[in-house]
Amino acid sequence: MKKTGYHSITGTIHLLSGMRIGGSDDQLEIGGTDLTCIKHPVTKQPYIPGSSLKGKMRSELEAKLEKFGGNGNEPCGCGNCIICRVFGMHKPKAHNLGPTRILVRDSALLTGGETELKAENVIDRKTGTAMHPRKFERVVSGSEFSLKIGIQVWDMDGSCSHNGKIGDDALIEFVKEGLRLVQRTGLGSGVSKGSGEVEFRDLKLDGQPFQL
Ligand SMILES: [Zn+2]
To answer: pLDDT (tens digit, 9 = 90+) per residue, 147-172?
Structure first.
């Protein structure tokens, strides 16, 4: 088994609406926000953990390809599909897929980064009345974060195919598809209520501009 290539996708993540990526709620203060957004421990600036973007890409691709593990409520762990190949197997067992191909770096704040509080009512299902509104901290729209994804290629990927492409191109196309799906659905929590709408901009594949 030999590593035969490496590709990088870089760009910016532009927030078209406020985004909430949950932080640790042990920072909870009395009278403060219910749910704070995640911030870098040193700079105190919000950032997007690579695991959040990676997890969202994976779950969108799993939904699209209808590949799930467990009883449909766990990530895929089949060990054969392109999801397991690119994102790694859930609950790894013996397999010959090689290492996880995708590396998603944490996205650092580039511009903006102020936070706002958004109140959301929780509706009582029985009475239909609003009860205890909760306040969520969101990073404001217009903020931008760095995007950096690495794709490792191994010799066994020569026969990998996706959307009519093979080898390196198949892996790259699969990652691009994941980004397209995240752009369509959103990132972070509360996407069904308008949070987390993102657009990937200034995209480059190995330094060359491309469109999703
Ligand atoms: Zn699988």
So the answer is: 999 999 999 999 999 999 999 999 99
pLDDT tens profile 54-102? 999 999 999 999 887 777 778 888 888 999 999 998 776 666 788 899 9
Decide the pairing of beta strands 102-104 and 144-154. Answer: antiparallel
Gap between the Cα atoms of 35 and 18, Å rounded:
14
* Cα(115) to centroid(ligand 1), Å: 38
- Ligand 1: distance of its center to the CA of 167 in Å? 18
Q: Which two tokens stand for residue 89?
A: 């197997």
Is residue 173 helix, strand or coil? helix
Provide long-range contacts, Cβ within 8 A and 24+ apart, for 119-127: 120/190, 120/193
User: How confident is the model over 98-139, as pLDDT tens digits?
Assistant: 889 999 999 999 999 999 988 877 677 777 777 667 778 899
Whole-number Å distance, alpha carbon 100 to ligand 1 midpoint, is 12
If DSSP codes are grouped into helix, strand and coil, which group holds residue 61?
helix
Q: Tell me how far apart the alpha carbons of residues 68 and 194 are, in angstroms, rounded to a whole number.
A: 27
Q: How far is the CA of 87 from the centre of ligand 1 (A)?
A: 9
What CA–CA distance (Å, rounded) separates 98 from 3? 10
Structure tokens at 4: 């035969």
> Quick check: helix, strand or coil at residue 180?
helix
